[in-house]
Write a structure and sequence with these properties.
The complex is a heterodimer. The longest helix of chain A has 37 residues, at 132-168. In chain A, helix 4 (132-168) runs parallel beside helix 7 (203-213), helix 4 runs parallel beside helix 8 (216-229) and helix 4 (132-168) runs antiparallel to helix 10 (245-281). The two termini of chain A are 43 Å apart. A two-stranded antiparallel ribbon of chain A has the order 1-2. Chain A is built from 12 helices and 2 strands. Chain A is mostly helical. By secondary structure, chain B is an all-alpha fold. Helices cover 74% and strands 0% of the residues of chain B. Chain B starts with a helix and ends in an 11-residue tail after the last helix. Classes of the chains: A mainly alpha, B mainly alpha. The interface between A and B is large, with 41 and 48 residues.
């Protein structure tokens, strides 16, 4: 230690000035709630990566079907069950994109040569020779639509129901609460399955079923928060100044609820996405020729032993979607409400 | 407590009644006929069939009869499987489903709790990160994807376990693992949070100060208090297992309730659909009630107001 004693000349030291006028000075710009939250999201690597991956997925979902140059429902039985093959990647032996399939005897065969196919199917083809690349991204569009739908239902019906119920209280609240209590008691899955039996299976019936059941959780959370907030002074002040109830709810309560609403929505979305895939998998979802990731997995599952790519590719995509939504939800929860952090 | 209990049970009954009625009326407006190969029947034969099952009577009469039978535990007879009683069909299917659910629940909570404990004890190390990662995967990857891949890689490629059917303990291993992913994820996340909170409290500090060993602190002192709130997630967990069993039983060809439910939907077998729906709903509502009451008993600070939560 002694060897390293620094030699700094005494005259470089100066007593600090104590100025009482400056002690209260704030030397960092104060951040708004949203700036603060964004800063915390950026620090969370998982959430940030998820955000980027999600952006890529969204771009691919809309760009994919266009750049593949093939229709999602064009059947070409001569080209059926082809393994994936991508230009440029086909010569890299460890990547599964060389159009080669291992047959039962363990021998590698180039299916593209056997079937004399000159085209490239980036994700291969299915049993009817439809291009899987186009179908997978079409299916991703469905998942994204469900995600958007779940978010909108949560934000509109759930928030409005909860805010009105909590704000007005009294008999109205009582009636509205009884309704949600009963709805909470009914398993969502059962309502959805019954709704789908009545309407035809397809995207519309899934939409209706989600609309009926999707908002209850949000309504309860928003109501509980509204009950707390409406007792606070700023609401009383606004009321005293003569603002209408609608204005108090939309201008004063909702901004304060924004964090809770976003967190809740973010947790509803992966559930809804899973639900659509789940229903499609048991045959209650989209019907042929339309594809969602769930139906693609269902179709691929039937030929899993022979043509594993037909299940694995959509399975990877849906897993990535679910993981990114969940990680982003966790990140946002930590950023918007540090108290709820686990 | 008694008043609360009464109120909750009344709600439970009301919910069940609404579900039963809803199921009945929805079934009435479903397109398609309930009979196998109906297009081969002449109109006269159809009339006879309808009369046999009481489908020619006005809807209110059918409804009253249905509710009356339901109260006696009679769920009607299947339209598709030689007039077998639905109650019998369900009872015959309960065993595999219950066993699968129980095994997945036990495996899931034990593994999840252990993962959560180790994550909390080694906070912000690779143990913590990998446990969190497993939890995220378990929550994110759809169970049917996981089950399908498990069946393919472990069952078919490696050949370690039987792939299909339900003929003994080794047949239950893959479906149990597939179904326990979500319980593992939920229990691990929850346990980690609770353990971190408990480990920061004063009495743990005291235990450390008096020289208790690492494992004594973790399992004797901290675990007990951290376990209590886990009761709250048991309800949602049991329900997710019920939902999950639908696809898992389909994938592994297990003769359980879920497999029958999925099959009856494709076959338009109304009474079976109705019966299973009502049974699922009853179980669901019952589990929620039991969990709420348990939680009130374990932690008296949570007063059973049943209000905003």
């Amino acid at each position: 230690m002694a060897d390293f004693e620094p030699k700094i000349p005494k005259d470089r030291f100066r007593p600090a000035e104590i100025d009482s006028a400056k002690s209260e000075e704030i030397n960092k710009p104060s951040l708004t709630f949203w700036q603060d939250a964004w800063m915390r999201v950026r620090k969370n690597k998982g959430a940030l990566v998820s955000l980027i991956v999600m952006a890529l997925l969204i771009i691919m979902a809309f760009l994919g079907p266009v750049i593949s140059g093939k229709e999602f429902d064009t059947q070409n039985v001569r080209h059926n069950n082809l393994p994936p093959k991508i230009q440029g990647l086909e010569n890299i032996s460890w990547l599964p994109f060389d159009g080669v399939k291992v047959n039962k005897a363990g021998k590698e065969i180039d299916m593209y040569e056997v079937k004399k196919v000159d085209e490239y199917y980036w994700f291969g083809t299915d049993t009817l020779g439809r291009d899987l690349f186009t179908r997978v991204w079409k299916g991703t569009q469905i998942s994204l639509y469900i995600a958007l739908l779940a978010a909108v239902i949560d934000m509109i019906i759930g928030v409005a129901y909860g805010a009105i119920s909590g704000y007005y209280g009294g008999r109205l609240d009582n009636v509205m609460q009884r309704i949600t209590e009963i709805l909470v008691g009914i398993p969502t899955m059962i309502v959805v399955i019954l709704m789908i039996l009545v309407l035809k299976p397809g995207i519309i019936s899934i939409t209706v079923a989600l609309t009926v059941t999707g908002w209850v959780g949000m309504a309860r959370v928003v109501r509980a928060q509204t009950l707390k907030l409406k007792e606070q002074e700023f609401v009383l002040a606004s009321k005293t100044l003569g603002n209408s109830d609608g204005k108090i709810i939309s201008k004063h309560l909702l901004p304060n609820l924004a964090g809770v609403i976003i967190i809740n929505t973010m947790f509803t979305i992966p559930n809804a996405v899973f639900f659509e895939a789940f229903l499609s998998f048991i045959g209650l979802g989209l019907q042929d020729p339309y594809a969602s990731l769930g139906t693609l997995i269902d179709e691929g599952f039937k030929v899993l032993r022979l043509h594993p790519h037909e299940m694995i590719i959509p399975a990877v995509i849906i897993s990535v979607i679910m993981i990114t939504f969940n990680m982003l939800a966790d990140g946002l929860r930590d950023a918007l409400d540090p108290k709820m952090r686990d | 407590m008694a008043k609360y209990l009464l109120k909750r049970v009344l709600y439970m009954l009301l919910t069940l009644f609404i579900i039963a009625s809803l199921t009945f009326f929805l079934m009435k407006i479903i397109p398609g006929t309930p009979f196998a190969s109906a297009n081969k029947l002449s109109p006269a034969q159809l009339e006879i069939m309808k009369a046999k099952y009481g489908l020619d009577q006005p809807v209110p009469v059918q409804y009253a009869k249905y509710i009356g039978n339901l109260l006696q535990g009679d769920l009607g007879v299947s339209f598709q499987f030689n007039n077998r009683s639905v109650t019998d069909m369900i009872v015959g299917r309960l065993g595999p489903s219950a066993q699968l659910g129980a095994q997945a629940m036990i495996l899931g909570t034990i593994v999840g709790i252990l993962l959560g404990i180790f994550a909390a004890l080694r906070q912000n190390t690779w143990v913590d990160y990998s446990s969190t990662f497993i939890a995220v995967l378990g929550k994110s990857i759809p169970n049917f994807v996981f089950a399908g891949l498990l069946q393919y890689y472990v069952g078919v490629k490696l050949g370690w376990f039987p792939v299909l059917f339900w003929r003994g303990f080794e047949y239950t291993i893959l479906p149990t693992i597939a179904l326990s992913m979500l319980p593992i994820a939920i229990a691990a996340r929850f346990m980690r949070t609770e353990m971190i909170e408990v480990l920061g409290s004063d009495y743990i500090m005291l235990a450390k100060a008096k020289g208790a060993s690492f494992f004594e602190i973790a399992f004797k002192h901290a675990l007990r208090n951290a376990l209590i709130p886990l009761v709250t997630v048991l309800g949602p967990l049991a329900i997710s297992l019920m939902t999950g069993s639908l696809v898992i039983e389909k994938i592994f060809a297990i003769p359980g309730l879920g497999e029958q439910f999925v099959a009856s939907i494709t076959l338009n077998d109304y009474p079976v659909i109705m019966g299973t729906t009502i049974l699922f709903a009853a179980l669901f509502v019952f589990i929620i009630l039991v969990v709420d009451i348990l939680y009130g008993i374990i932690d008296p600070r949570i007063r059973l107001s049943g209000g905003s939560k």
